Amino acid sequence: QQQVKQSPQSLIVQKGGISIINCAYENTAFDYFPWYQQFPGKGPALLIAIRPDVSEKKEGRFTISFNKSAKQFSLHIMDSQPGDSATYFCAASTGSGNTGKLIFGQGTTLQVKP
Amino acid sequence: NAGVMQNPRHLVRRRGQEARLRCSPMKGHSHVYWYRQLPEEGLKFMVYLQKENIIDESGMPKERFSAEFPKEGPSILRIQQVVRGDSAAYFCASSLQIGEHEQYFGPGTRLTVT
Q1: pLDDT digit string, tens, across residues B28-85
Q2: Contact yes or no for B91 and A107 at CB 8 A
Q3: pLDDT band at B102 (very low <50, low <70, confident <90, very high)
Q4: Which residue among A23, A60, B11, B61 is least crowded, i.e. fewest CB within 10 A of its CB?
Q5: Does B90 contact chain A (CB < 8 Å)?
Q6: Model confidence over A7-60: pLDDT tens digits?
Q7: Domain made up of A4-113: CATH architecture
Q8: Where are the domains of chain A?
Q9: A-contacting residues of B 6-35, CB under 8 Å?
């Protein structure tokens, strides 16, 4: 019940295309859903995050869509660029009163071809 | 405005030796999380600490692993009698306060056990 399942494992997109990564969870107590971007040899960097009181959040070319009833959320990268090539992790955690530890998905390796 | 700092960045230990990993949180942050990333896998929560207190160690292996966050100085993750299976990237993250979900990650320590 603590798992977060992420798909696809890898993704190849042409420059200018839309990259879509999906995550699903079981624990309805999760109330914070961040996405992290990780380049090889670096630490994960917080990209964008959403709470379940909204269905969508957009920051620049990055959008999170959240479906509470389906217990799914996804990351959309619009106008994908070669510089977006990285590994993306979704995560989930529970709110105040808990430790806030993040449960991560398995990661998606994105390659954007020029 | 330094971010989360970790050292060493790379650590090589022979089987049976001790590994000591250090993490200095972002300025003003008093909450530290340790995560482990095995090759080709996502990040797994290990332990959550506040100054001088271990709050949640549910992800820590029962033996050989310990963590501390003293009143002064960095948080330390200690692995005694390392084995090859301990080879991984160990990431530290910090947050401003409990209930403040945003966690910011350091660059990681890559431990290799030979």
Answers
A1: 888 999 999 988 778 999 999 998 899 999 999 989 999 999 999 999 999 999 999 9
A2: no
A3: confident
A4: A60
A5: no
A6: 999 999 999 999 999 999 999 889 899 999 999 989 999 999 998 889 999 999
A7: Sandwich (2.60)
A8: 4-113
A9: 6, 31, 33, 35
- Torsions phi, psi of A104, nearest 5? -100, 150
| Residue owning tokens 């991560």 | A104
Strands B53-56 and B31-37: unpaired
Q: Which of A42, A96, A107 sits opposite B42 (nearest CB)?
A: A107
Closest by Cβ to A43, choosing from B55, B56, B105? B105
Question: How many CB atoms are closer than 10 A to CB A87?
Answer: 19
Find residue A98's DSSP bridge partners.
Answer: A96
Could you identify the residue written with the tokens 């190849």?
Answer: A12
Structure tokens at B68: 């501390």
The token pair at B94 is 């910090």
Q: What is the pLDDT of residues A64-79, one digit of tens each?
A: 999 999 999 999 999 9
Kindly report the nearest CA distance between residue A4 and chain B, in angstroms. 10
Q: How does pLDDT run across B6-23, given as a tens digit for each residue?
A: 999 999 999 999 999 999
Q: Closest to A46 (Cβ–Cβ): which among B33, B102, B108?
A: B102
Structure tokens at B51: 């100054």
Decide the pairing of beta strands B65-68 and B53-56: unpaired
Total beta-carbon pairs less than 8 A apart between chain A and chain B: 68
- The tokens describing A69, both together, are 């009833």
